[in-house]
Amino acid sequence: MKKRHVIARGLAIVTCCAATAWAEEDSAALFQRANEAVQREAYREAAELFERAHRQAPHPATIFNAAAAWEQAGERPRAADAYETALSMGGLASEQAAYAQERLTVLKKSLGYLRLTAPIGATATVAHAKNVAIPAAVHLAPGSHTVVFNLGSGADVRKPLRLLAGETQSVAAERPPPMAQTQAPQRPAPMPSAAPSPTPDRASGSGQQTWGWVSLGVAGALAAASTVLTVQTFSALDNFEGSGRKDLDARDRALRLRTWSNATAVGAVVLGATGIYLLLSADSGSSANSKPQHRAKRGQGPLVHLSF
Question: How many other C-beta atoms are found inside a 10 Å radius of the C-beta of residue 238?
Answer without folding.
Answer: 13
